[in-house]
């Protein structure tokens, strides 16, 4: 699918708004061919799912269905981007979704650090801004 420059601009110009992050992730997913595995897109999918599942029903629901390959991709991504706080708290829940106390701790951390998570997401989108325009301009 192709998108106009002005369409993409509206989301990059309002990157601090959550709906813009969601729209950019939807666009990124639409631009990837089935065989492609672009680690930063996979990582953003995982990071945004982690946060949103925590908000909706508790982070344990994320970890309960977590695929090891996708967790590994996100861990490598967080290491590469030097997102130590997010990495440490993300890793706490892996394999521990039945530990209610630990899941409450991760949920609390996510709630109290949502701006740090948003900043990370925004930085990734901005770092890959040219990719969006190069892959999608009509």
Structural account:
This protein has 138 residues and is an all-alpha fold. The chain is 75% helix and 0% strand. Helix 1 packs across helix 2 and helix 3 (39-57) packs across helix 5. It is elongated, with a radius of gyration of 15 Å.
Keywords:
9 helices, mainly alpha, 138 residues
- The separation of the N and C termini measures 9 Å
Low-pLDDT residue spans:
none
The level of helicity is: over 70%
SS field, number of helical segments: 9
The global form is elongated
Overall pLDDT confidence: 94
| Amount of beta strand | under 5%
Major β-sheet profile: none
Specify the structural class: mainly alpha
- The whole-angstrom Rg is 15 Å
- Give me the strand/helix succession: HHHHHHHHH
Annotation, overall tally of beta strands: 0
In summary, what is this structure?
The protein is mostly helical and 138 residues long.
Q: What are the SSEs and their pairings?
A:
Elements: H1 5-12, H2 18-31, H3 39-57, H4 60-64, H5 68-80, H6 84-92, H7 100-112, H8 114-127, H9 129-136
Helix pairs in contact: 1-2, 2-3, 3-5, 3-8
């Amino acid at each position: 699918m192709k998108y106009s420059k002005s369409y993409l601009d509206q989301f990059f110009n309002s990157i601090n708004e959550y709906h813009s992050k969601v729209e950019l992730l939807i666009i990124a997913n639409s631009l990837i061919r089935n065989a492609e595995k672009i680690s930063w897109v996979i990582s953003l999918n995982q990071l945004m799912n982690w946060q949103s599942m925590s908000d909706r029903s508790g982070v344990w629901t994320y970890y309960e269905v977590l695929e090891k390959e996708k967790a590994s991709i996100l861990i490598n991504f967080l290491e590469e981007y030097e997102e130590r706080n997010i990495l440490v708290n993300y890793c706490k829940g892996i394999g521990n979704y039945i530990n209610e106390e630990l899941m409450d701790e991760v949920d609390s951390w996510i709630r109290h650090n949502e701006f740090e998570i948003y900043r990370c997401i925004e930085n990734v989108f901005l770092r890959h801004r040219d990719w969006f325009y190069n892959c999608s301009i009509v």
